[in-house]
Every structure is written in C-alpha cells, then in structure tokens.
C-alpha cells in the first residue's frame, strides 16, 4: 500500500510496556501492507528532568546548549522503540532528525523547519525497514542541533508525512495520544464533551491555537498546507479517532464545532496611542523582530486622535514584551497596562460564516453566568473573549472526565475558575454534547478524503531533487490571498458600561433583525467603560444602527453610537497567520508606507483583518497584494 506515519507522544512511550505496545501498532500497520514511519517523543517526564538538570548548573543556560541537551531525550526513545520492533520479529532502524536531513532555521528552542531531504528515509523504507524517527529535533544550516519547541514531535510527524507525499507517495498520518480523539472541549472540565469523528483543518487550527491541547497548531498548518490526512487516536486502543480533513459541506450547517480555553496568556493594553498611519506597524514590528507571537489583537476606533490597542501574549513572553514596548510607548506618549490573570474562551465553527446570531448566543450564555467580557475579537470562523480571573478564587480542582489529562501545559486551565465556568456555559449554549451533523457517519460519508495508498517505489534521483526543492521553506507562512470587501459598514458604541450582559443585549437586538455581524472588537476605554465596534453589511446599516441605538439607550443614555458606511475591510488569508510573527509586520508596514491608516484590527489563525477608509480600499488591496507577492 503506501506510507503510514505514526506519532507517539511521551506518555505513549513512557515505559517498556508502552514502548512494546507502540511497536506492536507499527508492526500491525506494516503487516497490513504499508511502509511505516514511527515518530516518537522523549519518554514520560524526560524533557522536564533534563530541564531540571540544566537548572542545577545554571539559571540562564544558552539556547544552543539546551537544544544539545534536550535532543538526547528523543534519542533514547528511538533506540528503545527500534529494539522493541526488532524483538517482535520485524526489521527497524532508528534515525535522529539530523540523520534524515530535517533542516531548520537557527532559532534555538523553537526552530522552524526549512526543508527535509527524504532520500535516506525512503531508502530505509524501500529496504523493508520500519523507520523510527526522533521527533522535536533537526539541524540548522551551520550544523548545530536544533529543537522545534512546543508540539515539536507532532510537527515532525506531519512535516515528514508532507515530505514523503511530495516525494511521490500516498501517505496518511496518525497521532497517538492519551485521549480518544478531538473533543468538543476539554473533557476534564466539561464531562459531557463529545469526541468528534471529523473536523476541518481550519477548525482544528483555530481550536489548537485557542487552547485545545490535543495537537499544536504548527502541525495542523503542515497538514493543511500539504493536504496530509490526519487522524488523532488513543495509543491504548485500536478504536477510530478523529479525522482532521478538508472542509466538507455538512460542516457549515451548524454554527459551532467546539469551544476552547486558554489560561496561559496575559493582556496588554496600550491606551492613548496616536491614531495615525504607521503606529501599529511600529508596535508589532518590534515584537515580530523579537519572535514574539501576538494573539487577540484588537484595535479600537480612534477618537480625538487617540486609539486603544489591546493584545495578548503568552505569560512566558510577558516580561520580554513589556521590556521591548517600554521605550516605544514612552515615545508615543501612550500608557501600557497589563492584566496577568485572564482566560480566553473561544467558540469555533465553519458555520458561523453564514449563520447569524452566533455572537449573540455566546454572549447571552456568558451573561447568564454573570461573566464579564474584557476583550472581544473575531475571525473567519471563531469568536474569542477575554475573561478577567479573580486570583483569590483560583482553585486547583479538576473535575473528573472521560479522558486522562491531555498535556501538562494545558493544566493552567485548572486555575481559571471564571474561564472554566464560561467554557461550560458556551459549550451548553451550542448543544455541543449532542452529535454533530455527520459526526456519526463513517469518513467516506464526509467526502473522498481518506487516502488510497499505493506501492512504495523509490523515485529517481531527479525526482527526489525536485521533491526536495518543493520542500524549501516548507514551514514558511503560506499567504493564499488578499480580499477586499467594500460592502461593509461599522457601528461603534463609545463608553458602554463594562458590565455582564451588555454585549449580549446589543447583539441580540442585531441578530433578531436577521443581520449578520462580521468583525467584532471590544476594548476597555476607561474605568468601567468599554468601546465596542462591529461590522455589518452596508445595506443593513440603517436597520442595525437603529436597533443598536434603541438598546444602548436602555443600557445607558449617556453612551454614544456612531455608524460609518465609508469603510473597506481587507483580509489577508493563509495558514499560520498568528504563529508566524512576520505577517502583521508585513501587512501593517505595507499600509504604513502608503500612509493608509488602520481603524480596526482583528486576527485569527487563518486571517488578519483590518478596516481602512473606503476611499483607499483599492489602494490598500494593491499594496498588500504586492507586499505578499501575490500579483
């Protein structure tokens, strides 16, 4: 048949018994007629133990030497797994990342893959060996060992599957973990969370980047970019897991497929930022140059020549971010405030592109729980809200669920008391415990996506060289297009009381009019006040504005509501838009160079959206098309 890539995480090879079970799965796949590549992580807590050993020597180890140290964990795993396969009567050979030509950039501790030379890998497969490959590691162009950072073994597995596919083989990739598949949310927090039989690449990208701990978003980027069929399944079972696949028509018939919680981020709020071209670029270019990934960018509409920009970063990057922004904020005459104890709750679904009332349903559920929203951003298929946690109310209790803990990093959610309450409320509001339409059907019912594997034949040298050339820059960001929408309008509410339920009232009023809301941005605008902006079709502006004014008058007659039909919305579309720090830098820099001011910003894993004045929409489209070399 073809090539099956199987990835086993640290908990799936934590001891001799687990290693032998992984070996048996690989052999069963081989006996089914496949060629097999097994990608393994370091055993159990090995990586943490190595980090602790380094800490015994120095509090500030160099990134290069840490990579040298951490890469040894996977080397132990691959040798033991190869021995297990041999003990069970099959031929196996183990390789490190450098041995099979996984070439990365030189960003130690979180390197990105540049290319993979599949020659040695394919020769071993062609000779009948099961290949056991170290995840998480590669080698840079200076010959130094590098590691891929969080989710590195997932990334290795899918990248190798993509490389083998481009070399001319049929391939599928199986990610073995300690849960049965991808759930509608974390089953430790919501016991009635449901395992999905299938989810689209885009939905999984958003779920992964928004806090779902089953897979890292970088691996999903590879899967989508190179169309690699993926299945997430339980290492302790032979049951079918969850397919991650191209979007099928049935997926857009319901508004949401899942909700996620992230509790390892901090919010930064830049207030009093000059509302002029180039300011956003200056801020985010500095962070991009430091390789700091920014999430939930929300720029509010400027008033009095000043704007507010809010965004989140990982807690581990907070101190670096503040250090970088300090001088810039001072020069701009702005102020920088931080909120460390926040939780991000996101709802994701392909159906929200065309189904109205999604935001209203989410906000109504949160209002009923008394959850106040400190920040709102939206993307093509997701809505994210930021909830401020009460440090005094933090709890270490995790409710029992049908699955074991997913990942250690995900345990941050155990302290997110309000975030967990919000997660449960949103999960219930979208009835995600019920079977998803199509979810009970076999994969074939979702469309023809499961691979038909073909015999492995080693390509000629020229074909191998061509495949390697196609893999150059394989983890670079993929920008697939720039879209201009001149048919949108914007409504902004100034000084909305920052209280639970107010957003729900606004979007309920709009949704009951059958009006589809697109971009949503909420930021704080002062003590106990918020600024809320959203876009609606220009044809619906008059109706939406009246409905908004009526409901806001009931909330607080002192609020000001402004409608603006003279805007254009631009979207840069692609894969890895959030995790690749240079996307916003390029986008904002190109607009700044043309003197085009940005009135609103919204980000997600698959698109970055901005609002500009309508008179300059076509010019903005042209400059972004040129900046991303799409012309």
Automatic annotation (TrEMBL):
Membrane spanning residue stretches: none
Keywords of the record: Amino-acid biosynthesis, ATP-binding, Kinase, Lysine biosynthesis, Nucleotide-binding, Transferase
Top-level taxon: Bacteria
PROSITE patterns: ACT (PS51671), ASPARTOKINASE (PS00324)
Catalysed reaction equations from the record: L-aspartate + ATP = 4-phospho-L-aspartate + ADP
Domain ACT: 268-350, 491-569, 572-631
Protein's recorded name: aspartate kinase
Species of the source: Gemmata obscuriglobus
């Amino acid at each position: 048949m073809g090539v099956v890539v199987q990835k086993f995480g640290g908990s799936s090879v934590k001891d001799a018994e687990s290693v032998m079970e992984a070996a048996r799965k690989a052999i069963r796949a081989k006996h089914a007629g496949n060629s097999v590549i097994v990608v393994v992580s370091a055993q159990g807590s090995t990586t943490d133990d190595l980090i602790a050993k380094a800490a015994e020597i120095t509090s500030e180890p160099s990134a290069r030497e840490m990579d040298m140290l951490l890469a040894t964990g996977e080397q132990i795993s691959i040798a033991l797994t190869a021995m297990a396969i041999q003990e069970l009567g099959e031929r196996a050979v183990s390789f490190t990342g450098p041995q099979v030509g996984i070439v990365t950039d030189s960003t130690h501790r979180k390197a990105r893959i540049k290319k993979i030379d599949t020659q040695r890998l394919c020769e071993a497969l062609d000779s009948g060996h099961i290949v056991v490959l170290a995840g998480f590691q590669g080698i840079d162009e200076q010959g130094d060992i590098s590691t891929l950072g969080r989710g590195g073994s997932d990334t290795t597995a899918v990248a190798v599957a993509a490389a083998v596919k481009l070399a001319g083989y049929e391939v599928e990739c199986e990610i073995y973990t300690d849960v049965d598949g991808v759930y509608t949310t974390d089953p430790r927090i919501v016991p009635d969370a449901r395992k999905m039989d299938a989810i689209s690449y885009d939905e999984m990208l958003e779920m992964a980047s928004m806090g779902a701990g089953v897979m890292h978003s970088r691996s999903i980027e590879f899967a989508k970019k190179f169309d690699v069929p993926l299945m997430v399944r339980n290492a302790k079972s032979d049951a079918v897991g969850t397919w991650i696949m191209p979007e099928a028509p049935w997926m857009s018939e319901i508004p949401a497929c899942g909700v996620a919680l992230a509790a390892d981020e901090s919010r930064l709020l830049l207030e009093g930022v000059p509302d002029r071209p180039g300011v956003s670029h200056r801020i985010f270019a500095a962070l991009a140059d430091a390789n700091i990934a920014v999430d939930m960018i929300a720029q509010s509409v400027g008033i009095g020549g000043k704007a507010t920009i809010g965004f989140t970063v990982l807690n581990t990057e907070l101190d670096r971010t503040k250090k970088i922004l300090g001088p810039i904020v001072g020069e701009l005459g702005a102020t920088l405030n931080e909120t460390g104890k926040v939780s991000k709750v996101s709802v994701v679904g392909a159906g929200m592109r065309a189904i109205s009332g999604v935001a209203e349903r989410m906000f109504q559920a949160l209002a009923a729980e008394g959850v106040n929203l400190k920040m709102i951003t939206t993307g093509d298929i997701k809505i994210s809200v930021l909830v401020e946690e009460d440090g005094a109310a933090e709890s270490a209790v995790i409710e029992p669920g049908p699955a074991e803990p997913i990942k250690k990093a995900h345990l941050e959610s155990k302290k997110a008391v309000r975030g967990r309450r919000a997660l449960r409320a949103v999960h219930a509001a979208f009835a995600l415990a019920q079977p998803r339409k199509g979810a009970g059907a076999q994969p074939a019912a979702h469309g023809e996506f499961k691979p038909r594997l073909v015999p492995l034949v080693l390509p000629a040298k020229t074909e191998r060289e061509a495949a390697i050339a196609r893999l150059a820059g394989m983890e670079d960001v993929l920008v697939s297009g720039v879209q201009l929408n001149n048919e949108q309008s914007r409504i902004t509410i100034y000084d909305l009381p920052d209280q639970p339920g107010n957003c729900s009232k606004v979007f309920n009023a709009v949704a009951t009019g059958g009006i589809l809301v697109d971009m949503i941005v909420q930021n704080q605008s002062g003590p106990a006040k918020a600024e809320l902006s959203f876009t609606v079709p220009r044809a619906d502006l008059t109706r939406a504005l009246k409905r908004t004014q009526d409901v806001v008058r009931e909330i607080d007659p002192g609020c000001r509501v402004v409608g603006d039909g003279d805007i254009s919305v631009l979207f840069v579309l692609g894969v890895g838009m959030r995790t690749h720090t240079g996307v916003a830098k390029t986008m904002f820099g190109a607009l700044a160079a043309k003197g085009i001011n940005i009135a609103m910003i919204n980000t997600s894993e698959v698109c970055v959206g901005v609002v500009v004045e309508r008179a300059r929409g076509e010019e903005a489209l042209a400059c972004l098309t040129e900046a991303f070399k799409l012309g």
